[in-house]
Specification:
Largest sheet of chain B: 5 strands, mixed
Radius of gyration of chain A: 20 Å
Oligomer: heterodimer
Largest interface: A-B, 18 and 21 residues
CATH topology of the largest domain in chain B: D-Maltodextrin-Binding Protein, domain 2
Mean pLDDT of chain A: 89
CATH superfamily of chain A: MetI-like
Low-confidence stretches of chain B: none
Number of domains of chain B: 2
Number of domains of chain A: 1
Strand content of chain B: 15-25%
Strand content of chain A: under 5%
Helix content of chain B: 25-40%
């Protein structure tokens, strides 16, 4: 079994999830509480990766981070490196690809928080940031967990985007889904089957644990 | 391939030809599971042969239609003088990534790896290799500038849409095993007459010049 690929996929999923947590919480907060009239545009952009085929996203990302694009050149100027065919490039693509899977559960959890608690906190002179940290987040734990798990699982199962921007480098961009695809293409059905089974088992386990956990958490912090 | 089909339709307006493109290995898996295709044209004759061993094809229909070649390709704007440097172009200072097709399953990738090994630079460049899923994606990696250089099929380098975009050096044929491209008719082909006439067309006096224009070496003309 391709343990290097499995390790890489777990690493990619971990970092993607961490970045999405840091990035997704403020975006979800803004989406929930902002009164801007064109907010719907941002909502649509965030949700795009759900609708777009991974090949489209992968193709755009490859062009956008390549040496001929301003973004690619700026990154090269800063770091002396290029993003395509690197772990960081894959990370950029994964964060974009899984963004809605973090932001949407976060935002829908924030929406269910009782408005009175938030306003009470504000009236008591607590800052917006502290209210977010001490009132909104604790009341949204199940949704946040759901967002974390979905991001992790979605990144683990990512295929089309990685195929488009990865370049299939062992230990750097050859994720487990690519490795399985390679084995199938090389007619090593046994090996492909073993890794697939492991992935199936792991995905199932993650989801079972999450749902179980979510139930316990919501028992401790009943929503509404 | 599109051109071959266009020419064929001129002569046979009664037959509609539908083409599905993909990697040879993928189609092999699908055809082993009775995918509803009539004719299979593969970049590696080994795949049609394997299908025939499994008894999934019409006996005696296996055919060699062309022999492929590989080239070292760079975009026109590249500072690398590929025509002069030949294989050494891959070791040029400006090269960070070398695109080849995945040698594990793509016939042109296998040829590229063999050529790197036989010229003795495989170890030196191994860490720079990026693998395309198929030869077209490999080409796209170089064309988009994400890889500085690549080893691709001559037929791609000669395609009218990209001919002006790059320069190349042809890897000598003895540097890699022959890329025998072959086809076969599947056992479950519906209109046997139409399929047979297409097979004949590809190997006949109209199909051959088209293949030749794309740099393929034709069987019997080596």
């Amino acid at each position: 079994m391709d343990w290097v690929a499995i390790g890489l996929s777990l690493r990619l999923s971990f970092w993607t999830t961490l970045i999405l947590l840091l990035l997704g919480l403020p975006i979800a907060h803004w989406l929930t509480f902002s009164g801007w009239r064109w907010k719907v545009l941002i909502e649509a952009i965030v949700a795009l990766p759900i609708v777009l085929p991974p090949t489209v996203l992968g193709f755009y990302v490859l062009i956008a981070i390549g040496p001929r694009s301003p973004i690619g050149r700026f990154y090269q100027l800063l770091t002396g490196e290029l993003l395509p065919f690197s772990f960081r490039g894959l990370l950029v693509a994964s964060v974009l690809y899984s963004l809605p899977f973090a932001v949407q559960p976060f935002a829908s959890a924030f929406k269910t928080v009782d408005r009175r608690f938030i306003e009470a906190s504000w009236c008591l002179g607590v800052s917006r940031f502290t209210t977010f940290r001490r009132v909104i987040i604790p009341l949204s734990i199940p949704g946040i967990i759901a967002g974390i798990v979905l991001s992790f699982a979605h990144t683990l199962g990512e295929f089309g985007v990685v195929l488009m921007v990865g370049g299939n480098l062992p230990g750097i961009t050859r994720t487990v889904s690519i490795s399985i695809y390679d084995e199938v293409q090389s007619l090593n059905y046994d090996l492909a089957g073993q890794t697939s089974l492991l992935l199936l088992g792991f995905s199932f386990l993650v989801l079972v644990v999450t749902y179980a956990l979510q139930r316990r958490v919501s028992a401790v912090w009943p929503m509404n | 391939m599109d051109e071959v089909v266009q020419e064929f339709q001129k002569d046979h307006p009664e037959t509609a030809v539908k083409v599905t493109y993909g990697s040879s290995g993928n189609f092999y898996s699908q055809l082993s599971n009775q995918a509803p295709f009539d004719l299979f044209l593969s970049a590696d004759i080994g795949y049609p042969r394997k299908l025939s061993e499994q008894g999934l094809t019409l006996p005696g229909t296996e055919f060699l239609y062309a022999i492929g070649s590989i080239v070292v390709w760079v975009p026109t704007s590249s500072p690398i003088q590929v025509e002069r440097l030949k294989m050494e172009a891959l070791r040029h200072d400006s090269v960070r990534h070398i695109a080849i097709a995945n040698p594990k399953h793509a016939p042109y990738g296998k040829a590229a790896e063999a050529a790197l090994r036989s010229s003795g630079i495989y170890e030196a460049v191994q860490s720079k290799l990026v693998l395309g899923e198929n030869i077209s994606q490999t080409f796209q990696f170089v064309q988009s500038g994400n890889a500085e250089i690549g080893i691709v099929a001559l037929s791609l380098a000669l395609a009218p849409s990209v001919k002006e975009q790059g320069r190349y050096w042809k890897v000598p044929l003895d540097a890699y095993p022959r890329l025998e491209q072959g086809g076969i008719i599947l056992k479950w082909a519906k209109d046997m007459e139409a399929v047979q006439s297409f097979r004949k067309f590809v190997m006949g006096s109209k199909g051959r010049p088209l293949l030749k224009a794309y740099g393929f070496i034709l069987p019997g003309e080596e």
